[in-house]
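seq/struct pair 1
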Amino acid sequence: VQLQASGGGFVQAGGSLRLSCAASRLTFSRYVVGWFRRGQGKEREFVAKMSWTGTTTYADSVKGRFTISRDNAKMTVYLQMNSLKPEDTAVYYCAADLGSSFVTPAYWGQGTLVTVSS
């Protein structure tokens, strides 16, 4: 299984970015897919996930600002991030797992850095 994240970058507060994560070597449509992040000096935290049925779950800190989506034909999961805040600065990791709990997913991408300036 491979997950390749992309789309990170530098943006001013209030701006937007869209992260992508392309998967390979798995039956993508059967997996729960999502995103975590780790800010400098902080622990890794859950951001969002989407089940194989399309059900979404978000961390309270990003609700109403971030939107997760998936394209099973392209085996890709996206994270649209709007109204970005400096506290959203982190390395973002995509992940995939067959289980719905998504606490410690089995598969991880390499991470993509998002920097939000104030």
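seq/struct pair 2
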Amino acid sequence: QVQLVESGGGLVQAGGSLRLSCAASGRTFSMYVMAWFRQAPGQEREFVAAINKVGSSINYADSVKGRFTISRDNAKNMVYLQMNSLKPEDTAVYYCAGRGATIDYNYWGQGTQVTVSS
């Protein structure tokens, strides 16, 4: 089992930056593919970025490419999302998620709110 806790959300002006962190519990953290998702009010949850077990494969949603960077530190059981050049449309609750050999992400954090003002 893996438990995930996000932090680092907040209010920022357009063009600003935030760094989200996700702390994972469990000794098998390095076995998991980790990702960030987000959900804006009235919208479905959407994929933001994912990173494989060793950080050699990374994927981003087109809407965040070139602005967001996902990374992980397996020694610290942490996953990060560096968000630069933030836009009002990035406003959402951001969730950390993890999976092992399954296709679906089966571990989720409680979410952290990111609000970008224009």
